[in-house]
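pasting for the record
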Amino acid sequence: MWSTRSLPSFPRARRQAAAVAAAALAGACLAVVNVQPASATPPGIPSKATAQSQLNALTVAAQGSTSGYSRDLFPHWITISGSCDTRETVLKRDGTSVVVNSSCAATSGRWYSPYDGATWTAASDVDIDHVVPLAEAWRSGASSWTTSRRQSFANDLTRPQLIAVTDNVNQSKGDQDPSTWQPPLSSYRCTYSKMWITVKYSWGLKLQSSEKSALQSMLNTCTS
């Protein structure tokens, strides 16, 4: 703690001014320590009621095959603006105090991963998750799309399809649907289900019975 006893023997006015400045500095330091990072919030997350209507409207079908699938059939990351590609755009959107260099690569910042509640200060520790994985989309109807449409899906910044999360968590998810993988942080599963549902609905993708049941259970935890 700062103490006025350690201040030099200046006139009273100067001692008081120094004490005020010291207290302000201590308060500022404390404020920095207590700053909470903003949570990643992709656009287009629907209300519970809207998500429920969308879930009810989705076509239930047996899961398709991954035959012929390749990530190269979903071109990403593409240039969004200037030298910034999709990954860099999401890193800036979902992070706090993100600083980028002339190539738009993040050199500093803070990223809170809502999947697991972890916070990172190095962009290399963060992945951009496709909420509905590319392989899952392929099995759900994207196999019949044009490459152009698959590119739009893989770089969709309009809907809640892309989110910055802990890299290891994203890798553990792989291409699983909610029947076999859900965010480790249970309090985020409501939001995750709404994101997943609206992405599948918006892109006209199908879902399997076990996937729908899991989504309904997650959606039931939502309050709004």
